[in-house]
What we know:
3 copies of one chain form a homotrimer.
Chain A: H1 3-23, H2 29-41, H3 43-50, H4 59-64, H5 79-82, H6 88-92, E1 102-105, E2 108-111, H7 116-119, H8 124-130, H9 138-143, H10 146-156, E3 158-162, E4 165-169, H11 173-178, H12 180-184, E5 189-198, E6 201-209, H13 239-243, H14 245-249, H15 259-265, H16 267-275, E7 286-287, H17 297-301, E8 305-307, E9 310-313, E10 325-326, E11 334-335, H18 369-383, H19 389-422, H20 436-458, H21 470-491
Parallel strand pairs in A: 7-8
Antiparallel strand pairs in A: 1-2, 3-4, 5-6, 8-9, 10-11
Helix pairs in contact in A: 2-3, 15-16, 19-20, 19-21, 20-21
Amino acid sequence: xxxxxxxxxxxxxxxxxxxxxxxxxxxxxxxxxxxxxxxxxxxxxxxxxxxxxxxxxxxxxxxxxxxxxxxxxxxxxxxxxxxxxxxxxxxxxxxxxxxxxxxxxxxxxxxxxxxxxxxxxxxxxxxxxxxxxxxxxxxxxxxxxxxxxxxxxxxxxxxxxxxxxxxxxxxxxxxxxxxxxxxxxxxxxxxxxxxxxxxxxxxxxxxxxxxxxxxxxxxxxxxxxxxxxxxxxxxxxxxxxxxxxxxxxxxxxxxxxxxxxxxxxxxxxxxxxxxxxxxxxxxxxxxxxxxxxxxxxxxxxxxxxxxxxxxxxxxxxxxxxxxxxxxxxxxxxxxxxxxxxxxxxxxxxxxxxxxxxxxxxxxxxxxxxxxxxxxxxxxxxxxxxxxxxxxxxxxxxxxxxxxxxxxxxxxxxxxxxxxxxxxxxxxxxxxxxxxxxxxxxxxxxxxxxxxxxxxxxxxxxxxxxxxxxxxxxxxxxxxxxxxxxxxxxxxx
Amino acid sequence: xxxxxxxxxxxxxxxxxxxxxxxxxxxxxxxxxxxxxxxxxxxxxxxxxxxxxxxxxxxxxxxxxxxxxxxxxxxxxxxxxxxxxxxxxxxxxxxxxxxxxxxxxxxxxxxxxxxxxxxxxxxxxxxxxxxxxxxxxxxxxxxxxxxxxxxxxxxxxxxxxxxxxxxxxxxxxxxxxxxxxxxxxxxxxxxxxxxxxxxxxxxxxxxxxxxxxxxxxxxxxxxxxxxxxxxxxxxxxxxxxxxxxxxxxxxxxxxxxxxxxxxxxxxxxxxxxxxxxxxxxxxxxxxxxxxxxxxxxxxxxxxxxxxxxxxxxxxxxxxxxxxxxxxxxxxxxxxxxxxxxxxxxxxxxxxxxxxxxxxxxxxxxxxxxxxxxxxxxxxxxxxxxxxxxxxxxxxxxxxxxxxxxxxxxxxxxxxxxxxxxxxxxxxxxxxxxxxxxxxxxxxxxxxxxxxxxxxxxxxxxxxxxxxxxxxxxxxxxxxxxxxxxxxxxxxx
Amino acid sequence: xxxxxxxxxxxxxxxxxxxxxxxxxxxxxxxxxxxxxxxxxxxxxxxxxxxxxxxxxxxxxxxxxxxxxxxxxxxxxxxxxxxxxxxxxxxxxxxxxxxxxxxxxxxxxxxxxxxxxxxxxxxxxxxxxxxxxxxxxxxxxxxxxxxxxxxxxxxxxxxxxxxxxxxxxxxxxxxxxxxxxxxxxxxxxxxxxxxxxxxxxxxxxxxxxxxxxxxxxxxxxxxxxxxxxxxxxxxxxxxxxxxxxxxxxxxxxxxxxxxxxxxxxxxxxxxxxxxxxxxxxxxxxxxxxxxxxxxxxxxxxxxxxxxxxxxxxxxxxxxxxxxxxxxxxxxxxxxxxxxxxxxxxxxxxxxxxxxxxxxxxxxxxxxxxxxxxxxxxxxxxxxxxxxxxxxxxxxxxxxxxxxxxxxxxxxxxxxxxxxxxxxxxxxxxxxxxxxxxxxxxxxxxxxxxxxxxxxxxxxxxxxxxxxxxxxxxxxxxxxxxxxxxxxxxxxx
Lengths: 492, 492, 492
């Protein structure tokens, strides 16, 4: 082979490579118009998009991939979306007839808030699954549940004393949006248009309340629920970010749901922290051993996982289909609710809960044992990619035990509180959450029982002991007893 | 082209590359003497320095760069610094006449503590800006403020009971240096010389009190304030480390100033955690979209940022020039103080605060609305690189609301405390911080109000709710009320 | 040189490279049988192993390395281990005569739990050193110490009220394994065999109690103590993971032992977080400046460190040989215990502690001043690789001071508690840990004194002030005093 042959070969390779990278990235003429201005005014997100899969392949290209590696779940897409990459226009103009936030913008009908329904044009299966995910109902599960709403009100209120009387001023909408609804999702309303100077001259834009927000249960201006960008962060929408645990930390790190913290100290979290730089977070399907060596949140709860060329679990955006129990956010852990809308629950006492205050589950709202077993089997199939049966059984037996024992410790706190109410030391009339002795009770389940269960579920060491764990469960009972004594002394 | 031609080309490229890397690294003869021993006795920092920009370019080289990419702000440097790279001698011998810690060391007059004034030989603009940064006054802002000094004393003291009477023994200087002053900066004094055996035989070294320390407001032996190595960690002094959020965590992670924690769970923090490996933290100016995809602390508060070839905000080491408000470390959030020396404040009650205890701001010490607007506009110009106006306005409207509401919640705690004092249940005579009911009050503003405001400012989710957030603000009021009842019962 | 020569050269290089990588990886026939199934049924750990050093070199190869770079400490290994790489069989079949968990498995006698004694076939020095590490006795140090056992019982118990009387139901074994023993190590017992369906048909496996567990003081079925995989995570067993701080976080992050958190905010931790991607965590010996630029946990406590070709400290798995003091887990910091078995301690009052409740150390169990000095000297020799003597002395003087002052603050809390017991406000009869006033005392030393000492030892900023630091030490004394007043009022 002569040098000139090498050169020729290089040229050929170059053109193949060039062709591979750029030949198919056809940007639609609409998106080109958007980019004309927005690469100047919001350059950062344009760069994010340029680095994203969306800017590199058209739905048509995506459809050609083999079943396993396919990243869109549509069988076909509408002709106008087919041949160009997914750019500004493809998301912000699609479905605009259904969007209350649609407005005239340089000759286009554009909407600001991109919703699961917009994404469903290419990702319908994920949209369908997500609608069964309890997260998609996170807004209503909070504000339509009288108990949780009472709690949120107490948390966000302004306390004042007027004429020696305690007053609680309800929180403003702005506060609610900045507090619980940051994660649960806001309700986005459109309140007309306002005019604003831009570098293109005066322009009109919709006035949105509840904006900005990327909460998992956001009520969107097209009537849909949720925000895909809660996990697939704008404007790269990458599978990589959704697979990394940091993304989940936004809503799952506080004392009410310390999943991220528990994971971080678990052996799985140790391995992730130590080795993740060498993993491939972008591969579909995601291959144990080749792409990664320890689970992230996504591995157990959402991703499609392959071992030795065999799919172990299918991708799910429902997530709870690998979860036999509901572990957090409730006074007592129970079987998982059947419906993602948890505001429908009602126990015998009339409270919107899946259990009585005595701990007994309200079974008609909950999945049955058979379904629990099937869900657990799915979860265990992920575990068995690395662990033996005796390891896995030992692990889950402990989780069962900690569900039982934390529920018992909540029963005790509940009895103490009920006695305090009965004895007139506190009152459940106005609210269940506005007195100190009630806050001890709330923390028993919302923080400590919760943390212990997470620690058992993920082998999270001190989050089951001293860091809001069993130590706190026990100490809290001790404190409740003393506090009640002090309240009694005062009353005499 | 023949093989020998390829070889020739390689050789030429090699020499170009070699020349580029090494031709200009002229180490001064003084520094060569230093390195002779110190590459043996403190090898680690010599390696750090070797990897640093300081070991690779002389100020002369730095001056030749085009305006945008220049990393020194001096228009010219003194001839003896000009032509050699910045090594040991260039920093530890410079200005030695002004350094009380200068000592004879192997024939050189050397000082141990390198100060902003030493760095200012090449970086005068940064030094000048930093002197307007509230951080440069952090030592005096603590010890010259009678209220904060009272607080620090109570925190660091030793509690004992002697003859059934409570005693508070003041903290030692060592404790103070190890506690508050670790971040605020110590006062470094020189107390003569002592003799020590070294591998070079017996040598004399200055005895320093307050050493080691790299606090932001350190009082240096040359009369200057601050420590550049607080952020530009010794001995690499890299822009990369100062731009990474981990560096800020040293002083900005505790419950009194949870900025790092809030950032970590924000979407910006999620993106940083997921993608930072692919970013360029060393580029000047720092280009949104090309070098990085989400802000770190430095992006919003300090760095010079470029979008599409246009500088969006100029580099600032004053930092508060993008900050309309003072959010933390104070009972009530107010407009930002005019002077970086905050110990000059005095309210009507004579307390060294920028607000009355009723929340009303003491306006003569604070920047006016016009200045607030200008600062906010600078901050927003960073935001607009990725976000639309409606997004940005929505975000900052919530911050305003949380400033208002957290201040209200502090007012309520203050009223409760004032009543306790008035009723003889506690005393503000000895200290405002040495009784339990007072600690509830302190935590209301120092921990919880603070955390809520940070969470609003950076979209930090649970730090505005359950993790020292609004939940804690409300619970704290409930507890204060009960505690007061218990104190009353006891008094009867 | 002609093209064909280049080709020839490439071929030669390829075969050298191939030879280097694969020629020596002789997998034993036993291991090949294991892999035959397990690459299918537990594919993840097989991949981990494939990426590990164990799969790449035989002990014979390892013995040939020069002394400094050797990764095994055996002078020779038994012939059957010599010539093949360390695979499944080499660990899970070795020593099977001594393993109670050995069982028949497809014609092999296999044991599940690999122990320090198994690892000692190649790593005897590490095993010997680790047996002197207090961690190897972590199980007995908890359950054989009546005081700590009392504490653990109180933490893990179920609290109930029966017939208006408080009852404390002891924790189940499952709870204990999931709580304290997760880190301390469980006792693994073999309870016969059970039969299970597998993809190979029905098979019998041992029934293990206390499994899974990788606690540092695990009681193994072969009578040994500990688990090497606590730090050298299965099945890569890498030196890299053991050197990264994340691994230590599993057991050293909670409020009782916040080492990881303290490190993270220290300057050392900042540098690690910012620069670790560029470090070499796999090199033996580990070279300051070349391989890494700031210490991780391992650097100071375990690793063999080289500077300028000279070994500064030798590798130790004893760890406490660089530690003059015992800083945590005890009411009072003292000199380090002589024996790793701390359950042997007894003070004058008969309590299993290394100090009287008044703080006075029980010296006969503790290393003497000479030994303390030698241990400190070792630690300081690591520091001196980067820091000057005055820096190091200043640092450790502060640690001494914080040991002294935190002990004083514990004395005060102890006095308050003793008075409460004396006055009948609480009782030390049943337990020292089951009343609120006692929990204040426990937290004084277990959380706050502890955290302050760690913060001093590693320059950890707010963990010595507001984050379980001196602020909490002081506040806790204030609260204890008020609580005692309330208990007194109640009693009247």
